[in-house]
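During the reporting period the student researcher (J.K.) took over the structure-prediction task from the postdoctoral fellow and processed the backlog of single-chain submissions. One of the processed entries is reproduced below for the supervisory committee.
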Amino acid sequence: MAQANGVMRAIQYDGYGGGAAALKHVVVQIPCPKEGEILLKVEATSINPIDWKLQKGMMRPFLPPKFPFIPGVDVAGEIIEVGDERTDFKQGDKVIAMLNLPKSGGLAEYAVAPVTLTVPRPSELAPAEASGLPTAAVIALQALKTAGVEFDGRNISSNTLITAASGGVGHYAVQLAKLAGLHVTATCGSRNMELVKSLGADEVLDYKKPAGAKLRSPSGKKYDTVIHCATWISWGTFEANLSAEGKVIDISPSFRSMFTSLCRRVMMSKKKLVTLLLEPKVEDIKFVVELAKEGRLRTFVDSKYGLEKAEEAWAKSMSGRATGKVVVEM
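J.K. obtained the following structure tokens:
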């Protein structure tokens, strides 16, 4: 079993709340990989809403498991040590990994990753772009699969709405939906409409204008599927725009949406609200990475920050105004 030595720079917080102002620059011991783990020299990590939602206490008292806590679950880096010789990975390999959420640890110069959620990083992908894929692209993929979308060319043509289509998950969802052959209507702010069109959306709505707020398709189409990546929108707004058996897949469910979902099931309604929680699967990470390698799925990087400016990256992600992914490079 490998043994790490030395210290590293990292970003941590010591309790709930405080936002970017509560982040601390620290020097801590480099972690040691255990059986089934690898130690990475982190090249880039992307920030996801789950990172700062944990800081807000969204999953209190279960997560974080203890304080102080180093956040960050998506990383691209180079393998320094291998904790289990039975793996095919070796020192020097460039990889993309989703870290175990209870531990996290991506906002640091080194991080321990599970072998089971690590994949090779193709040379075609720069670290910043690669680090955006594990959580956001996989959530987008799983949301579409939950809606019954296939990626083998067998889909029956359907209409799909993607809310917050210029965000971290949304911009991947647009691309994946088009790869699956769906007709895509997307919502975003006016400044990002051209970007979302360039990702393949057939129709783009400004969510601040009346038609956008009501989610009405310019072509009058009803939606068979909604990938809901935005904050709260009433069920009534969705229902008015759904086809007879339309589904809304909510990627960031609240207690309100979970209650609505339960009510729809009890009522045996044909129009459904499905709440989605990410299920880490290495095969899904491999799928999106392969698409990115082929140039069929791209990561739009909103901004890049050095570790010394991690607070700015954190604040940018929390603002809800990022287009695509916010990345911290080491």
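The committee noted the following: DSSP finds ten helices and 15 strands in the chain.
J.K. will present the remaining backlog at the next meeting.
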